[in-house]
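Page 47, continued from p. 46.
Same chain as before, 465 aa.
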Amino acid sequence: MSLLKRIEKGGQGGAGDGQGSSPTPIRPKSPQKQMRRAAPSTSQKDAFKDLKERIQDKLVAELDPAMDVSRTDEVRRTIQDMYDQILTQENIILSRSERERLFEGIVAEILGFGPIEVLLADEAVSEIMVNGPDKVFVERKGKLSLTNISFENNEHVMKVIDRIVSPLGRRIDESSPYVDARLPDGSRVNAIVPPLALNGPTLTIRKFEKDPLTIDDLVRFGSMSAETAEFLKACVIARLNIVVSGGTGSGKTTLLNVLSSFIPADERIITVENAAELQLHQEHVVTLESRPPNIEGKGEVTIQDLVINTLRMRPDRVVVGECRGGETLDMLQAMNTGHDGSLTTAHANSPRDMLSRLETMCLMAGMDLPVRAIREQIASAVDMIIQQTRMRDGSRRVVNVTEIQGMEGDVVVMSDIFAFEQQGIENGKIIGRLKPTGLRPKFYDRIEQAGINLPPNIFGASTRY
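Result:
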């Protein structure tokens, strides 16, 4: 992308109409008049903002519009040289920290994502929530806090949103006021704008770790026990069909990514997602991503379309990022027709609620199926549900590992293999552990057939054989 196109998508700090239109022409200004104008500013923040805008406008006017911003290091060096030159010419004196902060702010506007660039670089921040131009919240260690970062106006937020979604071939405007997208590093993005968002353009970014978490990390964080981790690894290798259940922000996708890492390297894996987030390191991985309709309302490709197409691609494993509609029925049919070892996630508050959700989502496929037929499909297809929960203290834990045992009459029979036992609260932290229930799963023979022998103590001292 040329520098001119990049600037049109948001590089002028709020100029333009916020919908990717041509930027407002930059008018040359007298440095002396500009300095006199900044001096009587009502606050240091306003003076710094005015200075930033003036230097940024001058940089944009002098930079080569044909410069390729994908060559980040080269462009950054060019901006640094011009920036130093402008400060010298205008005799602007700043402290070292102010000089660096101003430079990084300008570079973020031209090359990055504006004011939130510093939050994206902060590894302690797991989620960024922009509620209009004046309120930017972040999540650190499961707790929300308000930052001192702000945008200039609604148009400034719109430019950053447009910069995120445009490279993906997606759009956001009054006719299509919300969109799911992703950042280049795979972080999940959702944006919704007026007239639906009354507070102004609203942006939510779920950041992903640069280095994907491993099962050892989850054990160290207390998300699960070492015994549970060993058991889940065996289940994936033994090609059991697993559904990860949980609420929003409970860590479902992270756990799905960890489970997917256990898939043997010699198997063909096909992933299907709304916005590609999974970070698999196996060599034979095909990643599919759904597509929204174009401006004419045509060309939409849904998750259901991709799941159906996936079955024609000779997959060893099908991994669906999230089931939220009619694609659930196709996913269950895939699990029932030789595609063992499939993995997916869905929203639910408990394993039993997950069964009800699966029924409801199957009905959304538009097929007039009796409930008993759907339950039989679920009982036959799904081997295990892993329930992930975000606790009150902000921690994310596995609270149930539940086996689907089959049907008794019209009821799907379930039994917990592991269940979380809370022991108390200490200094605001929930104390507890995921413990075995003492039951050995009925599918254990499939684990043994895969050549895996788990020690009996994994299922508890009172294991029933």
